[in-house]
Amino acid sequence: MREPAAPLDRRRARARVTLALWCAVAAPGLARAADDTPPAPPAEAGPQRFAVHAQGTFTVQATPGFPSPYVGAQSLTPHQAKETADVTVYAGVRPWRGAELWVNPEIDQGFGLSNTLGVAGFPSAEAYKVGSRAPYFKLPRLFLRQTIDLGGDAAPVAAGANQLAGAQTANRLVITLGKFGVVDVFDTNRYGHDPRTDFLNWAAIDAGAFDYAANAWGYTFGGAVEWYHAAWTVRSGLFNLSKQPNQPSLETGFQQYQLVGEVEHRQSLHGHPGAIRLGGYYTHGNLALLRDLIAAHDRTGVMPDNASLRHMNGHGGGYLSIDQELSATVGVFVRASAGDGVTEADDFTDIDRSVSIGAQIAGSAWRRTTDKVGVVALANGISRTRQIFLNLGGLGTLVGDGRLPHPGHEWIGEGWYQLGVLSGVTLTADYQVIANPAYNRDRGPVHVFGFRLHAAV
User: Fold this and answer.
1) Between helices 384-391 and 290-300, what is the axis angle to 10°?
2) In CATH, what number does 8-32+50-456 get?
3) Assessment of whether the complete model's pTM goes beyond 0.90
4) Which end of the chain has the lower number of beta carbons within 10 A, N or C?
5) How far is the C-alpha of 400 from the C-alpha of 108, rounded, in Å?
6) Cα–Cα dist 252/240, whole Å
7) Per-domain residue ranges for the chain?
């Protein structure tokens, strides 16, 4: 259901609140930029004991008209513009040797295009599945990370959001427990993984067919273990699913769960670092089989609600992720992923196959050391069973035009330029073109224009 337009005074009030939240994060960066005094060098000391960081991101996306001969309950509509805003605090403390305890309170506001519906590879990963006109509070992360050194060369660890400065050995065991995102640990990628600083499209920052466990904001309860040895890392994790697909509330006792595993190898190509990651997942949850929904439609002529045919089922898939630096200014990445396509989508989006290839170029290549450029091309696909389900009027997690007589791959291209405005502040212009949105060759192509303002301290 589309949100009604708010009265002008209410829209102005929301804009003032959003601006105030963002300025609270941007102000320290502005102050630093105005101060010519060089920062004092860090004192020689042991591991960092505590830290507080913050970020604020404001994103606007708009789409003009595009061919749309019909629309369904979950279709992307033309002639619209939407904004989202979020402010996050990252507070961490080291309670004992090798341990870090982090909490990330956050305030969110805004809507994605068409209430985050209509495209499987949705154009903004800053738009959550739960929108709101007024700012609201949530706690995406509260976790403990324990690092156990196992020997090898020691290397410094830089301070950052959710990371205390210190040192760690090449061989180590890392255990993470609490509430966090599955993709905080798995399917990471140096050049396509953060919608606040690089690509915005969902299928560019994560493997499109990785239906990872999460609530409607992308986080869950669980644990992960990582074993680092020389150039190799082996990861495994157990996570709670949402109680119902694509909903805010999470399981807490692993009645519905997901197992994830990943092997990573780090390599050097002519002195430039890179990594290859191969992962897989198995989900056991209360999910409807697509074939059961299709059979029910064939008997009654009406597509039933997914919830009416849910029972405990299992499904899974896997992904490959590669990132490689080619030079001091150019890096590339490739992702490929596939799922079995037999159940309704659980917690991510309606993609059964996905391939993406992209690159980032640092602005130092043209003497703009704080700028970056990114480009990516990707293709998403679905199983034949899911095509039939959508053509009969079924609704997925994000897509559902009411019919799908002419299915095709969802082709997406994204390009952006990020301008370094001040210390810690960037402004990004983003453009995406989407052919066959929601796998529907009758609709589109869709042009999405966006701007993102980001500040971090």
Assistant:
1) 40
2) 2.40.160.10
3) no
4) N
5) 26
6) 6
7) 8-32+50-456
